[in-house]
Amino acid sequence: MSQPKTAVLLVNLGSPDQPTPAAVRRYLKEFLSDRRVVEGDGIMRLVWLTVLNTIILTFRPRKVAKLYASIWDQDSPLRLILNQQVAALQLALQKTIPDQDIQVFSAMTYGNPGLSARLEELAQAGYTKILVLPLYPQYSATTTAPIYDLIARFQQQARNFPDIRIVHDYHDHPLYIRALADSVKAFRADHPAGEKLVLSYHGIPQEYADKGDPYPEHCHRTSELLAKELKLASGQWQTTFQSRFGPKAWLQPYTDKTLEKLPEGGVKRVDIICPAFSADCLETLEEIAVENREVFMDAGGEQYRYIPALNAEPGMISLLVALVKQNSCGWFCQTCNNNELNERNDAS
């Protein structure tokens, strides 16, 4: 009996195809038109789409394109790192599960390679098992949920489709916490440690959290576990939220406002890490590493160091291997298959 064709799909948010206003405009239109990203129905929806298409997409793409150009290296860092993660995970799975033919692919919710097109491609290629692994440690309706939406639409349009599983989150997975801790330790082994470790997460509007989005709880849990793993005292670390957009209140405390106040409180040396990002991108390489450094130093700071994302580091790949094994149990895990067979025999 031949083995079913199995695919692992690493999915991240997305990126424009080029650091140009036209490419950024296409990307932002797709991203900001998603009801999961900017909520609202009826009149509020019409108002938002009007603002988006007449103001934001007219003026913002040129500014954002310049920011992308400052970090572009033949492609966007996010897409380059995603491809590196795919290649590293493919090699690791071949070593750890050599008797299984598992192929790893990349996809993005917005932009290219698009998740919907990738699912169609895999289905046509005969893949009957697909494990979708969103690269968001902490679940949010603004990031992970759109992946569920796209998969649901794909299934609604097909009469027969592959068996698809989705990894919901891994915000408290021991290997994730260990990988973060190891990255901090390795960084501080080569650089003088800051007086405080700032853990900056991408923000969401406060009203989304008030409606039940578990994202802030996931973020705080990650921070607590990481601080415990690093044996940090309460005053040696702090959770903040970055990347707010628009006039509404977002999750607080805000990263930039916190960095602005730390020097006057006596904290002149900080290390900052972004645990919600599995790969370095515009929000880490430009907003955190450049813009927020200027905020801190202009306020009287003396040392500001950004600790890179896990990217394709060994700890990250070990985590991904573990997530694949845990979430594909029964597809090719012999132990699980044997247990299922024994249960059926006992029942009969």
Provide an overview of this structure.
- The chain is an alpha/beta fold and 348 residues long.
- Helices cover 50% and strands 15% of the residues.
- The chain contains twelve helices and eight strands.
- The chain has helices at 21-32, 42-71, 77-96, 115-124, 145-156, 174-190, 206-210, 215-230, 255-261, 282-298, 314-327, 334-347, and strands at residues 6-15, 102-111, 129-134, 163-166, 196-202, 237-242, 269-273, 303-307.
- The strands form two sheets. It has a four-stranded parallel beta sheet, sandwiched between helices.
- It is globular, with a radius of gyration of 21 Å.
- The protein starts with 5 loop residues before the first strand and ends with a helix.
- Residues 337-348 have low confidence and may be disordered.
Strand order of the largest sheet: 2-1-3-4
C-alpha-based Rg, rounded: 21 Å
- SS class: alpha/beta
Helix content: 40-55%
Main β-sheet description:
4 strands, parallel
Mean pLDDT: 94
Termini separation comes to: 24 Å
Put simply, the count of helices is 12
* Strand residues, percent: 15-25%
Helix and strand pattern: EHHHEHEHEHEHHEHEHEHH
Q: Uncertain segments of ≥5 residues (pLDDT<50)?
A: 337-348
Walk me through the topology.
Layout (H helix, E strand, L loop, with lengths): L5 E10 L5 H12 L9 H30 L5 H20 L5 E10 L3 H10 L4 E6 L10 H12 L6 E4 L7 H17 L5 E7 L3 H5 L4 H16 L6 E6 L12 H7 L7 E5 L8 H17 L4 E5 L6 H14 L6 H14 L1
Parallel strand pairs: 1-2, 1-3, 3-4, 5-6, 5-7, 7-8
Helix pairs in contact: 1-2, 3-11, 4-5, 6-8, 6-11, 9-10
